[in-house]
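cache lookup: miss for this entity combination. No prior model stored, computing from scratch. Input as submitted by user K.M.:
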Amino acid sequence: EAGVVQSPRYKIIEKKQPVAFWCNPISGHNTLYWYRQNLGQGPELLIRYENEEAVDDSQLPKDRFSAERLKGVDSTLKIQPAELGDSAVYLCASSSGTSGVTQYFGPGTRLTVL
Amino acid sequence: GEDVEQSLFLSVREGDSSVINCTYTDSSSTYLYWYKQEPGAGLQLLTYIFSNMDMKQDQRLTVLLNKKDKHLSLRIADTQTGDSAIYFCAEKPGSGGSYIPTFGRGTSLIVHP
């Protein structure tokens, strides 16, 4: 069974440019999470989806970040415009059910903003 | 708010046991987790423990929970070079039905021959 797939794996952009990350969760997992992991830190939740519905998005900086999961499967996280402080690894995870006892993480997208 | 603390580094010799410690502040935590992150990879769930348990063993891994002191530890027996990675402790709060985990900063385990 394929794990959580993320692309791209690496992205380098200049500040003020837009950027998008894509995630394909494990088949059948209805809950999807986006995390940001700064260097030397643990992951911090940005947003959680249950099917198509976004829940737990209080940590998402809504002035520049947006996310969607239109058909309840794949998800896209966008930043527009990117700032220097957005440099981090963006991790996607998925789980079955809403309690999320066991989350499966993708390899992440490493974003560098110059 | 919730806070999870871990020491940043641990260095052990191959074949020895490793003990990684974690403290947390949320007394309502229901699940406590240990994740492993290898370079360039996502987090891999190693094991988790319910807050009403005090010990869980899974092959070379032993998790000990002292709920009174809010202290969690992960013991790796017969540590191998392949165990070199960053280990994250995480806790899930007990209130509500959502899963918003709080992660520690991670402990970098270095295993040398």
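stored under new cache key. Chain A touches chain B at residues 4, 31, 40-45, 48, 55-56, 91, 93, 95, 98-108 (CB under 8 Å).
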